[in-house]
Amino acid sequence: MKRLIMALIILFILSYSPIAAEETDTVWSNKSWTVTFNTAMDFSNLNEAIYVWDKDRNKVPVQLQASSDNKFVEVVGMTPWTFKPGQTYTIYITPALSSIEGTPMKETFTKTFTVNEQADQELQVNDLIVTESNKSDVTADFGEPVEVAHLSDEYRWEVYHDQFEDFIMVLYNGANIVHGYYTNQDIFELSGKFRLNASFDSLEKTYKERAYMIKDDDGRPEKFIMGREDVTLYLFLDVFRNSKLTSTLIMSRKAEEMYYNRTNTLEEVSDMQIYQITNAIRVRYGLNPLKRDVKIDEVAYRHSVDMADNEYFAHVNLQGQGILDRLNDANLSYRSSGENIAAGYATGIEAMEGWMNSAGHRKNLLAEHDLIGVGVRVDKDSPYGIYYTQDFASE
Question: First and final CA of the chain: distance in angstroms?
Fold first, then answer.
């Protein structure tokens, strides 16, 4: 029997009981839920107003994705293993939500579901992960790493490329066993079938019944996320090329959980990943790689720190200074400059893919620059938890 992941539609009215609800008792662990409202809502406090508890009333980490018209919210697990087989969960939609006119919901609505005890379809991934290769296997194919950054005492990322060709980043544990990789180049086939630039239709046909499909605000598919108990696979799609496959990321579950702990080591790792991936993308598009500039790094880092400390997210700081002003304050003068910022992404990899799926950020990444600076700030007490700044300059 096919495993459908069509979203359950629950329709709510602000002042009355639900007028329609599709009952579902048992679902697959990759189930997504869509809450539909009959009017535009104020989602400024979305994370406090909609949440999921397990049977012991522990809050379960989920992603809440609101539609651009503020009438829909999609509820999905934070990771493919968030909802565990055989366990029961309840979604709560509370009166903390109001319409954009300020009319509050009358009561709390709930939906309880149980995850199927049968294991989901097994995820087949590249032999690099399945066989738990070690570092000697990787270096035999790609040579010695060009840069290393530590995610924790146990895990580290190493980057391999030849002038940003044959680009791959590999995640190892302390015993030099591969626990993940990322590449945006056509180095090897995925699952023995799909290669980079695979069409969206071919990906959807194979993965739609066992993956989350994440869309952007315009409804364009931008990534698939799927996993089994020990590994997660991300298929990143390029919305400007009809959602073709543009890169892949695989991480072991144990390593991936390090990202959600939001430790300060994410600053070093994400910093490295953003710089390296930027140049791999530029080379793929026939552009010059950018030179790292430590002075611009400092300007970028200070802006990320400032956003976290003062709880705002913008290119212009609270003193009214944009990128040119901040460069001038550092006694830096360039022919032209540009800036990308992001916040809340779990990894620098995902921040990069997000920028490439945004027209303005993509333009900055592919513009005629010479220099780059990157600054990442982790602050668990800030609204977004992690802030990314990427500054460009031309001499």
Answer: 61
What are the sequence ranges of the domains in the chain? 25-115, 135-261, 282-394
Q: Which amino acid does the sequence have at 276?
A: Q
- CATH code at 282-394: 3.40.33.10
Please say whether the beta carbons of 7 and 33 come within 8 A: yes
Residue 67 to residue 59: CA distance in whole angstroms: 23
Token output for 52 = 């999921």
SS3 186: coil
Mean pLDDT, the chain, whole residue set: 84
Closest CA to 63 of 50, 53, 72: 50
As a whole number of angstroms, the distance between CA 271 and CA 275 comes to: 6
Tokens of 117: 């005890």
pLDDT per residue over 42-94, tens digit each? Answer: 988 888 899 999 999 999 888 887 888 888 888 888 766 678 778 899 999 99
Residue in 137, 149, 170, 346 with CA at minimum distance from that of residue 251: 170
| Residue 125 near residue 211 (C-beta atoms within 8 A) | no
**What CATH code would you report for 135-261?**
3.40.33.10
Is the distance from CB of 244 to CB of 202 less than 8 angstroms? Answer: no
Torsion over CA of 5, 11, 12 and 17, rounded to 10 degrees? -120
- Beta bridge partners, 204, equal none
The 10 Å Cβ neighbour count of residue 314 is 10
Q: Which fold has domain 25-115?
A: Immunoglobulin-like (2.60.40)
Residue 333 Cα distances to 83, 291, 296, 371, 391, angstroms: 52, 16, 11, 12, 13
Question: What backbone torsions phi and psi does residue 56 show, to the nearest 5 degrees?
Answer: -95, 10
Over residues 211-232, the mean pLDDT reads 83
Tell me if 25 sits within 8 A of 112, measured CB to CB. no
The tally of CA atoms less than 13 A away on the side-chain side of residue 306 is 18
H runs (alpha helix) in 221-322: 253-260, 265-284, 294-310
Sign of CA dihedral 184, 149, 223, 216: negative
Q: Which residues are within 8 A (CB) of 273 and not within 5 positions of it... i.e. 6 or more apart?
A: 149, 157, 169, 182, 347, 348, 349, 352
